[in-house]
Amino acid sequence: MDWGALHTILGGVNKHSTSIGKIWLTVLFIFRIMILVVAAERVWGDEQDDFVCNTLQPGCRNVCYDHFFPISHIRLWALQLIFVSTPALLVAMHVAYRKHEKKRQFRKGDQKCEYKDIEEIRKQRFRIEGSLWWTYTGSIFFRLIFEAVFMYAFYFMYDGFRMPRLMKCNAWPCPNTVDCFVSRPTEKTVFTIFMIAVSSICILLNVAELCYLLTKFFLRRSKKAGNSKQQHNHENKEETKQNEMNELISDSCQNTVIGFTS
Amino acid sequence: MSWAFLRDLLSGVNKYSTGIGRIWVAVVFMFRLLVYVVAAENIWKHEHDEFECNIKQPGCENVCFDHFFPVSHIRLWALQLIMVSTPSLLVVFHVAYRENREKHHNQKFYRKPGKIDGGLLCTYLISLILKTGLEIVFLVLFYKLYNGFKIPRLVKCDINPCPNTVDCYISKPTEKMIFLYFLVATSCLCIILNLSELSYLIFKYSIKCYLKRHMKKQQ
């Protein structure tokens, strides 16, 4: 059980996403999860061992490390990735629910069901409309919120995105203000900026996808309204024609009746 | 043998669950199992090496660590995940028993072996009660073993062979506390989901039973 399992779970959602959604998923897996696993984890691997303080006082190093790094960058990124991937599960559940309903209809032998067999239902790709549109849009909205919250938490906790070389610490039991040195600060800064940049790209992709879905929704609505107006006009024309014909028929009937009587 | 086994097990359970049961499986996968493997495990990896006491007396550090951490948080977390997932196996076994019975007698006893009714409903309800009970047991165990869900930076230890009361420092206490709270929150969420599923099933089948009796009376 690891990031590979997440890949399997989200891979299923990919089928029912928009093109921007597919790009987002690719960026997530290649530029965030893969970079986290193959590179960032190594960079932060020795963070506490190589965090050195200019004192021999036992416990001072532990306490200073805990003071400056309440939660490690790596863990924060892992949590961010998990939270950001979770809304996609809502879409997966909704699709699974729809497929389940269609399978039930098919098994009951419903005439309305247009599928020939169960395999077709399983492989079918649903269009993003109706209630699925709301679920999908909701999931993008939550994604955006989680990304923003985590980026802000990062900025707030570490006073920006730079990793300093030297930190001054005077938490007890350090006897006075001691100098503590962080391991690989430049490399950590580079990776932090990289992850923040990719996070921002993901936010932009989500915003673009949201705009695209909203535009599609309003276009579809105006098309429907246009269609129903046309249909209404068409129906009105049909009605007036029918009225005229009825009048003609009734006139001719009257004439024939008059003809008979006379 | 690894967590992949548990993941496959839970995927099997998913087939015979209600909607709320599937949400429970998703929460266990994403917020408990995945967080454990990719984040939490690494925090507690070197907890013994990084546990430092203000003394050079050999053996004092070992003894103090053992006194304050009889069972490590991370091991308790792993045990909790395994125990809480296991009651779902009862349902899988019962469905397998039903299918075997049909095969053995070459007869259709049940409308659908995987449908939650009759005996399978009782098994499902028992598994839900067990899951909830085990969650609560582990939360209480965490609370009692570690005096609440706090992890202090400093603990004072005076067990033999430590010559007097020494200060011992725990590594990464804040990060450990954050993840401990995360564990408690997801545990509580799972308890709520289990209780909702229990009430939903009891309510649904009581209504069904009542309606059946009402129809019979009318006839």
Automatic annotation (TrEMBL), chain A:
PROSITE patterns linked to this entry: CONNEXINS_1, CONNEXINS_2
Transmembrane segments: 23-40, 77-97, 132-158, 191-214
Protein localization: Cell junction, Gap junction; Cell membrane
Keywords, in A-Z order: Cell junction, Cell membrane, Gap junction, Hearing, Membrane, Transmembrane, Transmembrane helix
Its membrane topology: Multi-pass membrane protein
Gene Ontology MF terms in the entry: gap junction channel activity
Gene Ontology terms: biological process: cell-cell signaling; gap junction-mediated intercellular transport; sensory perception of sound
Domain named Connexin N-terminal: residues: 42-75
One matching Pfam family: Connexin
GO CC annotation: connexin complex
Domain Connexin cysteine-rich: 146-213
Subunit annotation: A connexon is composed of a hexamer of connexins.
Similarity annotation: Belongs to the connexin family.
Function, in words: One gap junction consists of a cluster of closely packed pairs of transmembrane channels, the connexons, through which materials of low MW diffuse from one cell to a neighboring cell.
PANTHER family membership: CONNEXIN, GAP JUNCTION BETA-2 PROTEIN
Protein name from the UniProt record: Gap junction protein
Organism: Pardalotus punctatus
Gene: Gjb6_1
From TrEMBL, chain B:
GO CC, alphabetical: connexin complex
Single GO BP term: cell-cell signaling
UniProt keyword list: Cell junction, Cell membrane, Gap junction, Membrane, Transmembrane, Transmembrane helix
Topology within the bilayer: Multi-pass membrane protein
Transmembrane stretches, start-end: 21-39, 77-97, 118-143, 178-203
Any one GO MF annotation of this record: gap junction channel activity
InterPro entries: Connexin, Connexin_CCC, Connexin_CS, Connexin_N, Connexin_N_sf
SMART domains: CNX (SM00037), Connexin_CCC (SM01089)
Subcellular location: Cell junction, Gap junction; Cell membrane
Source organism superkingdom: Eukaryota
Stretches assigned to the Connexin N-terminal domain: 42-75
Pfam families linked: Connexin
Record domain Connexin cysteine-rich: where: 134-201
Chief site of localization: other
Entry function: One gap junction consists of a cluster of closely packed pairs of transmembrane channels, the connexons, through which materials of low MW diffuse from one cell to a neighboring cell.
Subunit architecture: A connexon is composed of a hexamer of connexins.
Family according to the record: Belongs to the connexin family.
Name the UniProt record assigns to this protein: Gap junction protein
The organism of origin for this protein: Pardalotus punctatus (spotted pardalote)
Gene name per UniProt: Gjb7
